[in-house]
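Q: I'm a student working through a structural biology exercise. My instructor gave each of us a protein and asked us to get a predicted structure, then write a short paragraph describing it. Mine is Histone deacetylase. I'm not confident about reading structure output yet, so if you can add a plain explanation after the tokens, that would really help. Here is the sequence I was given:
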Amino acid sequence: MKPHRMKLAHHLVVNYDLYQKMDVFEPHWASADEMKVFHAPDYIEFLQRVSPANQRDMAMDMTKYNFGETSDTDCPVFDGVFDFCQIYTGGTLDAVVRLNFGLCDIAINWSGGLHHAKKASGSGFCYVNDIVLGILELLKYHPRVLYIDIDAHHGDGVEEAFYVTDRVMTVSFHKYGDYFPGTGDIKDIGAKNGKYYAVNFPLHSGMDDDSYESIFKPVIEKVMETFCPSAVVLQCGADSLTGDRLGCFNVTTRGHGECVRFVKGFGLPMLVLGGGGYRIRNVSRAWAYETSVLVNQDVSNNIPYNDYFEFYSPDFKLHLVPDKDLKNDNTREYLETHKIKIFENLRSLTGAPSVQMHQPPPVRMLREEDEDAVDPDLRSENDGKHQHEAEFYHDEHDQDNNEVPEAPDVVPMDVDN
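A: Happy to help. First, here is the predicted structure for Histone deacetylase. I'll explain a few features afterward.
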């Protein structure tokens, strides 16, 4: 989950000129109070305090919150860990605000998508679950939100957070079995009001483009037809790509990107996030290509020259080729059987849940008088004022820097169900 991945992806997006079809904003740093909307206060306070210098003195809390680098933990402490969480979480929250206000149709935060973090602990290199926080914000304005996860690992943190509600449907396609986090059986379907609103497609090693497409498209189409979401969150974990260090699938950048293209085709407000991915040159390839898909821009298969050009040797190509020696352990019969079972579960739903209207909740408006506050819990920043002055422009006339329009009058929905 090294932030260095963001630099590589950023340079490809810029050097493919994809930024010219996007509005690019610097997000605010999420405050501890914003994180506590989902996470336990004591966990966030621990996250604020812990550092490499004091982690030995906090051994009991380290164990309690699943931090460290042992066989039983996978959330290492590093300098600036809380700053890191503030940045990627703020990016997701600001993206959702723009979607809620109707300022964009698609919002991207490749640094987000950390789907394993739980309410009171870290997990799987994930510290703050920006996805859950983003969905909670979407639910203020959208009656139903669909979450789709194409990471190689099960999106357990997001599923767990919404396991008993019918306002959010979670759909995860992932490796299952002796593989982290070990959850996401097809029998895990939700509980109470959320029964049948958790959809899991457990997979074996070797999934390729054709196999993935044969299940992804029909399942998502049936989910859309049954659940009728008004907004979509798509987690694009790149560890499902061929050749990933921790992955075991054989999906190419084209196959991964086809999932993005298919979901985009439904025309719903869409939040697109990153996630896993442990061969960074392939992560940046995938996210740059998927950015091109989202902005409807064809790009060359030849990697453009950039500051990290040498990372893409020896072929310097954008698209990956599958590993011809990797066996696909997912038989056609296995995939068909599980697809049919999921369809049966979806037929058990009586229809898309309705939500009564109520007075608008407090809107995450950003006050100019708070911009310079030292405490990030008090400071807020107007994202409309923070496009970088130079980095995303060839010259001063390259894009029109129009003021951000006012939010439309929207009657949001009850989020208490």
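A: Here are two points you could use in your paragraph. Residues 4-385 form a domain with the Arginase; Chain A fold (CATH 3.40.800.20). The chain has one domain: 4-385. It's a good idea to check both against the output above yourself.
Q: Great, thank you!
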